[in-house]
Every structure is written in C-alpha cells, then in structure tokens.
Structure to design on (250 residues):
C-alpha cells in the first residue's frame, strides 16, 4: 500500500455505508469468507463489489485466461490482461481496491476432487459459472455442508438470481434438472450438456447486474439486513423490458 494511504484504514473505506449497517453488522462482513466460483462476467462484478463493501476474505477460482471476447462484459478484463489467468488478475484487482481483504486464488477448474479445498469454511458461495455440471457439484457440496449458495445466471439480455440453503429446495430440484437424485458421472454430464447449445449470447450490463446483486445477497446473508431471495423465489429480468424485473416463485 502506498505510504500516503496507510492512515486510511478499513473503516474509512466502509464509511459511506455505515449509516445503512451497524458496526457489529459490518464487522461480521469484515470477518467473513466468501468463495466466488468463476472470475469472468458475473464473477468479476461480484468480486469488485465484495471488495468495495469490505469483505474480509475471498477464495477465487477460475481455470481460464482473458481473451478479446471478454472485453464486452468482464470488468476485470482489459487489453493489458489478455492471456493472463483470470484468478490472478482478480486477486490483483482486489489488492488495488481493498488491501485489507485477504485473497486466495486457485488457477484451476473446480471439480469434485478440489471443491472441499476451495469452499470449506466459507460463509457462502457465489455461483459465477457458465456450465451446469460444475454448478451442480457446488450446489450439492454447499447443501450437504450447510453453506448458502448464491446462484446467478444469464442469457442474452436476461438474468436470474436465487439463494439456496440446506432448508430450501436444491438447485437441481427447483429447476427440474435430469441429474436430480442421480450420481454425477459421464452419463449425467452428457444429459446436462444437452441443455446448453453453443456459446450463449451476452451483452455487457447483464452479468454485471447479476454479479452486483449476488454480492449484495451475500452482504444481506452475512450482516442480517434486508430480505434474502431464498429459493423457491427467483429474481428475474430482461433488460429489453424493464417491466420484467420481478421476483417469481417456482
């Protein structure tokens, strides 16, 4: 941290939000640990907001590197980060925003074998993934280990958000996925791949809205303020129709 900033501590960063939360509520967030699975579109927006709101610790995982196709939406991407690991860039970004946040990065794909290493001891997990199979690995682990799972997804101009816990319907059950109550194996993975077709379209604001909302759901969960969007409730919108912003119950 530059010498001229050393007198500006954590509580000065958080000062503008301290009329919204109490010091004890903000301290909970300062002491909390969140895993963000994916450091791209949704993940980048979530990571940025979590750092600015004063999260104490982040676990970040992504196996990919930035490329030019990311520039239309992924906040952590720039012409200078092309070819660099997303998790590495994310860690450096957090350091520049909030040096009081501890970051552990994992430049690897999340699997059944490493999910415990990435997610264990976290207060909640933010889903910033682009594939259903990995999302199911996370959702099953979090439900079994009583860790809130904040699900966000996008397609084109549309986005959705919901929060799952051990006391709600599971992600697979809510969306009636063919993997529900089945073993995760090659056959299950093939079934799930049929649900997606090619590279999905996306425009810049959509993943960043979902990322910011995901970060705030985490803030609500940890501080205790506001109303969390627990499943089977799901927040949905389409930016082509602002009247579509709504909370539904599936």
């Amino acid at each position: 941290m530059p010498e001229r900033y050393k007198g500006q501590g954590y509580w000065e960063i958080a000062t503008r939000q301290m009329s919204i939360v109490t010091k004890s509520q903000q301290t909970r967030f300062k002491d909390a640990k969140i895993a963000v699975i994916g450091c791209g579109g949704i993940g980048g927006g979530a990571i940025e907001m979590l750092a600015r709101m004063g999260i104490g610790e982040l676990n970040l995982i992504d196996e990919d590197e930035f490329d030019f196709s990311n520039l239309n939406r992924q906040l952590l991407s720039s012409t200078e980060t092309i070819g660099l690991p997303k998790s590495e860039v994310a860690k450096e970004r957090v350091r520049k925003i909030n040096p009081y946040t501890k970051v552990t990065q994992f430049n690897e794909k999340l699997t059944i074998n490493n999910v415990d290493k990435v997610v264990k001891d976290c207060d909640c997990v933010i889903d910033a993934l682009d594939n259903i199979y990995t999302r199911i690995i996370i959702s099953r682990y979090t439900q079994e280990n009583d860790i809130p799972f904040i699900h966000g997804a996008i397609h084109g101009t549309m986005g959705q958000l919901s929060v799952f816990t051990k006391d709600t319907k599971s992600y697979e059950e809510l969306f009636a996925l063919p993997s529900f109550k089945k073993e995760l194996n090659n056959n299950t993975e093939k079934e799930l791949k049929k649900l997606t077709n090619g590279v999905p379209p996306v425009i810049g604001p959509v993943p960043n809205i979902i990322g910011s909302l995901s970060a705030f759901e985490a803030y609500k969960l940890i501080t205790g303020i506001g109303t969390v969007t627990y499943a089977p409730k799901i927040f949905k919108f389409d930016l082509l129709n602002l009247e579509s912003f709504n909370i539904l119950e599936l």
Summary: Residues 205-223 form the longest helix (19 residues).
